[in-house]
Amino acid sequence: MRHLINSVRTIVLIGVFVMAAGCSAIIAGATSSMADSLADAIINQSDPETVRQGAPAFLLMMDGFVGNSPKNGSLLQGAAKLYAVYGAVFVDDPDRAKRLTERGFNYGRRALCVRQKSVCDMHEFAYDEFITGLRRLKAGDTPALFAHTVSWLAYIRTHSSNWGSVADLPKVEASLERIQALDEDYESAAVHQYLGILNTLRPAALGGAPELGRRHFEQAVEITNGQDLSIKLEYARSYARLVYDRELHDSLLVQVIEANPEVPGFILFNTLAQTEARSLLESADDYF
Hints:
Blueprint: E1 17-20, E2 23-26, H1 32-43, H2 48-68, H3 73-90, H4 94-115, H5 127-136, H6 142-158, H7 163-166, H8 169-182, H9 188-198, H10 210-223, H11 229-240, H12 246-258, H13 267-282, H14 284-287
Antiparallel strand pairs: 1-2
Helix pairs in contact: 2-3, 3-4, 3-6, 4-6, 5-8, 6-8, 8-9, 9-10, 10-11, 11-12, 11-13, 12-13
């Protein structure tokens, strides 16, 4: 659970700050190319601490945008994903992480509700009713469902001591499978990675599905041509450690450490993955 969403790569940031007449102003009508450029600058940053220190300004920016356009689905999706990533990956204080991911999940719920009113607050449905709600969603609802699911994963990750939250994991897994059914190409590597993690939370004897998880990890590696090092990191941490495969574990981590992290689109999370891979490799003797 601890690193359930470390591999989220899509950070949606809408708008830019400009200085005018000595004051800061937010351009709410920023073009998508501006937003894409800003997101690219973040995911291609090789210094995670710069992102850690700079991202809060954009959290406030997204709050302002959503406040001005509370029914704008794209803004809600962007706010949900940004809060999810920042709260679960870059915040060390547990109470603060809980607050931030709760805000992100609130944005994610609103994003899905704006898109499809029949599934508003679907997370509160009983499981069978939840599955019925998922079936109502169409291909065009995929981005909203993905934002809802990612922010939900972040929320569960920071509230893992609450068994009521953890009990929602089957619903999250069903959401990911529905995303695949609606559009198998939408964030396909990330979806496979999340499914890999969820299926390796428990050993087979306790109801887990580690071999299914392994196949998801391998598909995620194949989709990214091995360039997203966070996938191999999670493959080692979630699957290899669960089944006590020391050879696979060390092989994957060495591949992560020895790889060139400077791959456009993956630099930030590759840098984070290499740091964690070194830590996992150092602790391997104690674990195995």
